[in-house]
Specification:
This protein is mostly helical and about 100 residues long. It has one domain. The chain is built from four helices and no strands. It has helices at about 1-10, 15-45, 55-65, 70-104. Helix 1 (about 1-10) packs antiparallel against helix 2 (about 15-45) and helix 3 runs antiparallel to helix 4. It is rod-shaped, with a radius of gyration of 22 Å.
Length: about 100
């Protein structure tokens, strides 16, 4: 409330108050939570909107049963999901760093 009142006192229009005061503070606060939620969504739903977690694991199990080498195939499936989740986490950290740099 104090920042909004100060921006109003400085003569910023309501749109400017939202764009320059309220939203930057809001994004800094919610970005870590959004990153965590996105990671959960990636793990629980379709990967890249094409390949589902169940489909990848089922295919890895089929390949493992055909070759009698389950470890390699399941490890490959795990690595796919690890890479995707690491990318999501890195993107979230990068966005947080950019927003934090705007504060300094």
């Amino acid at each position: 409330p104090g920042q909004v009142e100060a921006a109003t006192a400085l003569g910023l229009p309501p749109r400017g108050i939202w764009l320059r005061v309220v939203l930057p503070q809001l994004f800094r606060r919610i970005l870590p939570v959004l990153t965590a939620e996105l990671t959960i969504v990636v793990k629980g739903t379709a990967l890249l909107s094409v390949i589902t977690v169940v489909e990848v694991l089922r295919r890895a199990q089929q390949m493992a049963s055909a070759s009698y080498r389950p470890f390699e195939h399941l490890l490959a499936a795990a690595l796919v999901f690890l890479v995707v989740n690491l990318a999501v986490g890195a993107a979230g950290r990068l966005a947080e760093a950019r927003l934090a740099a705007g504060r300094a």
